[in-house]
Design a protein that fits this description.
The protein is mainly beta. The chain is 0% helix and 48% strand. It contains no helices and 10 strands. The mean pLDDT is 96.
Length: 114
């Protein structure tokens, strides 16, 4: 059974940092291109950053230079390091396999506010 458990969200002031973690089970994160997505209130879910099938990383323009994705093949986790956070980064963040839509975790809420 494929499962994702996202954690690490919270309330942070603009300019602050957060580190999100995604614990995956039922498959190996090393075998698939993993991504982080987010969904803000009233908006569609969007790609934030993710690995491609060739091992490169693609970023949403809005997070370039601020967010970094990494993977721990031993722990089977994917991490999202978020720096210089802005109010528009407020959303529920999810991890998933690129292009997959069948299984979703509960997400983790990130709120950027003064």
């Amino acid at each position: 059974q494929v499962q994702f458990v996202e954690s690490g969200g919270g309330l942070v002031q603009p300019g602050g940092s957060l580190t999100l973690s995604c614990a995956a089970s039922g498959f190996r994160v090393s075998a698939f291109p993993m991504t982080w997505l987010r969904q803000a209130p009233g908006k569609q879910r969007e790609l934030v950053v993710g690995f491609t099938t060739t091992g490169r990383v693609r970023y949403a323009e809005s997070v370039k230079g601020r967010f970094t994705i990494s993977r721990d093949d031993v722990k089977n986790t994917v991490t999202l390091q978020m720096n210089s956070l802005k109010s528009e980064d407020t959303a529920v963040y999810y991890c998933n396999i690129a292009g997959a839509d069948r299984y979703w975790g509960q997400g983790t809420q990130v709120t950027v506010s003064a």
